[in-house]
């Protein structure tokens, strides 16, 4: 539940426009330290003050796209958001040196969209669909 004092404090910290955007997208007024951004423009925040945020909900992502889902978060940021790693990728030396040069760039999961992978068959089908033969009215069927 968002209290009036917390709402006013959040408006003063992030501004009216950002507060309204947060209420529309995540349904909560949050303010915290900007930790970093990924290659897609998603912004990541953290607020470790236990009086303002519930423990376990003190890290969050502000998605760059309007139609967002969890597959738009790269693996290194996912591990930070879910407390698998203590430090964010921007501050963690291991994560910065971890990416090998042969690794392909990360892309979101496109399942259920027009960009999803679809297989195609190059073999001739074993059976053909039935196509009815029609005759115009008034003609004899000879």
Q: Work out the radius of gyration.
A: 26 Å
Portion of residues in beta strands equals 5-15%
Give the biggest sheet.
3 strands, antiparallel
Approximate shape: elongated
Summed up, the helix count is 4
Mean pLDDT over the full residue set: 83
Defining key terms:
24% helix, three-stranded antiparallel beta sheet, transport, alpha+beta, elongated, 3 strands, NDUFA12, 142 residues
Summarize this, please?
Helix content is 24%, strand content 9%.
Can you give a write-up of this model?
The protein has 142 residues and is an alpha+beta fold. It has one domain. Helices cover 24% and strands 9% of the residues. It contains 4 helices and 3 strands. A 3-stranded antiparallel β-sheet has the order 1-2-3, with helices on one face. A hairpin with a 5-residue loop joins strand 1 and strand 2. Helix 1 crosses helix 2. It is elongated. Pfam families: NDUFA12 (PF05071). Keywords: Electron transport, Membrane, Mitochondrion, Mitochondrion inner membrane, Respiratory chain, Transport. One of its GO terms (cellular component) is respiratory chain complex I.
């Amino acid at each position: 539940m968002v209290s009036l004092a917390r709402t006013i404090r959040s408006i003063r910290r992030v501004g009216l426009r950002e507060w309204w955007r947060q209420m529309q997208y995540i349904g909560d007024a949050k303010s915290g330290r900007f930790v970093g951004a990924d290659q897609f423009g998603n912004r990541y925040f953290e607020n470790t003050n236990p009086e303002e945020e519930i423990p376990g909900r003190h890290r969050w992502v502000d998605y760059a796209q309007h139609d967002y889902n969890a597959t738009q978060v790269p693996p290194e940021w996912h591990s930070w958001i879910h407390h698998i790693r203590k430090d964010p990728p921007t501050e963690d030396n291991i994560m910065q040196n971890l990416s090998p040069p042969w690794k392909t760039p990360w892309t979101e999961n496109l399942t259920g969209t027009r960009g999803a992978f679809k297989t195609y068959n190059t073999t001739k089908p074993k059976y053909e669909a039935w196509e009815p033969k029609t005759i115009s009215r008034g003609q004899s069927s000879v």
